[in-house]
Structure formats: C-alpha cells, structure tokens
Design brief:
The protein is α/β, with parallel strands linked by helices and 193 residues long. It contains six helices and eight strands, in the order βαβααβαβαββαββ. The protein has helices at residues 32-41, 54-57, 65-76, 112-121, 135-144, 174-182, and strands at 4-7, 45-51, 85-89, 129-132, 147-151, 169-171, 185-186, 189-190. The strands form two sheets. A six-stranded parallel sheet has the order 3-2-1-4-5-6, sandwiched between helices. It is globular, with a radius of gyration of 16 Å. The two termini are 13 Å apart.
C-alpha cells in the first residue's frame, strides 16, 4: 500500500483565482514546488483533489480541466515533481448545468475523491495526508482516514467547526507542512510515518 499526500489545488497549491481554467493565470505558491519535491523524495505519491464547481455553474466545460492539469505538471517539472493524479469534483447541488447539479460523495468535505484515488492507486489512507486551505479539505481528509494539515495562509478558510474538522496540524507555509510530515511530533503527539 502506498503513502500519499493529497493536495487541494486552489488556495493551497496555486494562488486562488476563482473559476480559473486559463493556464496563463495559474501560479504556484513560492515554496510549493520544493516542498512537493521533498515529499516525493520521501516516497509519497502526490495527488491533487479539487472541487471544480465551475463546471456545474456553467463557467467552463469539464474538458477545460485537462489544460489545468497540464499546466500544473509543467510548473512542477523544474522541481523534479510529477503529480500522480488529478481528481476533481465537477458537481454542485445548486449548479445551473443539470447533469452536474447534484449532491455527490466526491465534493469536499465528502471523502469520495480520496477514496476513489485510494482504490485506483492502492493507497493506504491511514499512512497518507491531506493538505488544504479550508476546513472542508480537512474534513474530507479526516473522513477518508488520513492525517490532515490545514495550510492557514490567510485566505478563504471556512471556520465553521464540527465533527471531522479539526486538523492534525496547522501551518502557514508549505515548508512547515513538510517539516511536520517528516517529523510529526508536536504538542506531545507522536505520529508514525
């Protein structure tokens, strides 16, 4: 079984430009590439899991996400990083495109994308991590059985508390996230990698 780091895209891996599928407007956070390189070198698979309700809202077609995936791979290549997968949820229950205007188990905070990836890639969810900038990301990771890191970078975190919404650890940068994953002893809590 493989260890994986699941990564939210908008606001975590890249700067958040709402409903953007223009590759020219996609920019990595400054320390993300190096951090992902270190995680990959440590033996983790890297998979993006992203809510993409712009499809359900009719802002862009589902096939536009292929260019987004290609751009992410291109931006990460200079760091020696290759993403092992890109999972997205095109649904939203209040969407305007009927085929996508549904409730589903893949839209975070539900764990469906992580569970699907685990089946397809032979991932040990209990040995894996979910990194995201919202508590919906944290909840999805916790529901899937992962350990979770909230990247509190001053952006759009929904602070509504509840079951499954407490991260294993909170950081402000990708560098701190990697340091914690490599040495997860904090506040008297020791986690086994």
């Amino acid at each position: 079984m493989k260890r994986t780091v699941f990564i939210d895209k908008d606001g975590t891996l890249i700067y958040d430009v709402p409903f953007n599928v223009d590759p020219k407007a996609i920019t990595l956070y400054p320390d993300a590439g190096r951090a992902l390189h270190l995680l990959q070198q440590a033996g983790f698979r890297l998979l993006v899991v992203s809510n993409q309700s712009g499809v359900a809202q009719g802002y862009f077609q589902e096939n536009a996400l292929e260019a987004v995936t290609n751009r992410l791979q291109h931006l990460l290549r200079p760091f020696g990083v290759h993403l092992d997968g890109f999972y997205y949820c095109p649904h939203h229950p209040d969407g305007r495109v009927p085929a996508y205007a549904v409730s589903c188990s893949c839209r975070k905070p539900q764990p469906g994308m992580l569970q699907q990836a685990a089946r397809e890639h032979g991932i040990d969810l209990t040995a894996s991590w979910m990194i995201g900038d919202t508590l919906n990301d944290v909840e999805a990771g916790n529901r899937a059985g992962c350990r979770t890191i909230l990247l509190d970078n001053g952006h759009k975190t929904e602070w509504q508390s509840g079951p499954y919404r407490e991260p294993t650890h909170t950081v402000r940068t990708w560098t701190e996230a990697v340091e914690f994953i490599e040495n997860p002893t904090v506040k008297g809590l020791t986690l086994t990698l």
